[in-house]
């Protein structure tokens, strides 16, 4: 199928380059506010379950108009529609990209994907029924999710984020690292008769996950457990391998669900166990509302599109190589890690969808990083305010607190507002050490409350933002070949650690293997 036109080949690209040279390079957002009394209104908007203020960014109305023209010239709208229609836009794996179908209502009009939607809801209903059964079983006090990547980051982030909505009486643990210290630390506090293990692996062959799963089963049996079928469930499409492991309860998903887009599928079972069937459906509903916004809103009022275009403007014209995110809510502490995978695994590519190398200067994914506020203020904000690199920062704030501790939440919100203001306005100091250059860009997202709906909407917003920038760069945002080479080499190196065989290795790897191996 036809992909988007790569952005550097579109007519608007040259116009954007000219706009950057004449105005963008020296743009000062402080002057822009003085010159335009309506700037806040122009560069902020409501979207489902959240509000976004983009007015502190280094962009003006003319630049955004050119970016909208670029999106249309590249065929962004047609590419978006192709994704929703189930066309195989993941061209290197010849797959559809239908994570949006996972959160569509059962009666949604989805054209030729109607059969898939029925399968989605059959699986969803069965998974949620199981979740309610486990939630009602008071003998199960601990749930251990064993997965990695998308099978860990999304569920872990969401369970933490929505802890306010979790039923009491159950504790949730997440094991992903093949480093045995992690699993051993979790198992120390558990009793086999009170523990449910979830093994999350689409193929039931993921090396790290299966190593941890086998160790968990060994611990269960050695600790006196006798009912593997009752204390292990699998989130996988490989039902036969799960049965051989001893698991009868399995929930599958499909090859058109990428790992980093899978929390909406059976991979989200830990979330459903935490917040219940109703809570999980609310999470899906929030994401679906953002899907509909992305699918139907004109580009000029389409928040994921505006964000994705801003990312292209920053990455390819201002040459900003990273972006920070600071959620001012402790429950969102794992959000930066989740978004790292979503963006960098999707758009960290150096060839376009046809396999042609991208030209020099056409950067793709920025480095995404961050920590919750106010912790980050006492760590890396020094660099954001006074460092030699300009790094756009994104604030996420929640208006209403979920606690009643007096005075805390106003302090938290005041810090978020003040940091965004300080990055922009700066402070002049002739002595230099207390000089803040200002004109440092930021975006500000506001939830009224942190709920399943608002979290679902924000995550879908980010998915579609990543889709937008990837589409303009002309890359395939839905494969991840970059994770494969290290896996292959690890299989060769592992037996060498025991044997000491260094034949054919480079000098550095050979030297390190000698120091780390059993023969050292």
UniProtKB/TrEMBL annotation:
Cytoplasm listed as a keyword: yes
EC number: 5.3.1.9
Origin species: Variovorax paradoxus (strain S110)
Major subcellular site: cytoplasm
Function statement: Catalyzes the reversible isomerization of glucose-6-phosphate to fructose-6-phosphate.
Coiled coil: none
Pathway noted in the entry: Carbohydrate degradation; glycolysis; D-glyceraldehyde 3-phosphate and glycerone phosphate from D-glucose: step 2/4; Carbohydrate biosynthesis; gluconeogenesis
Family stated for the protein in its record: Belongs to the GPI family.
One annotated Gene Ontology cellular component of this protein: cytosol
Taxonomy, superkingdom: Bacteria
Keyword annotations of the record: Cytoplasm, Gluconeogenesis, Glycolysis, Isomerase
Record gene name: pgi
Membrane-spanning residues: none
Active-site residues, Swiss-Prot/TrEMBL: 345 (proton donor), 378, 487
Protein name according to UniProt: Glucose-6-phosphate isomerase
Family matches, as NCBIfam families: PRK00179.1
Reactions that this protein is recorded to catalyse: alpha-D-glucose 6-phosphate = beta-D-fructose 6-phosphate
Gene Ontology biological process terms, A to Z: gluconeogenesis; glucose 6-phosphate metabolic process; glycolytic process
Locations listed in the record: Cytoplasm
GO molecular function annotation: carbohydrate derivative binding; glucose-6-phosphate isomerase activity; monosaccharide binding
PANTHER family named among the record's database cross-references: GLUCOSE-6-PHOSPHATE ISOMERASE (PTHR11469:SF1)
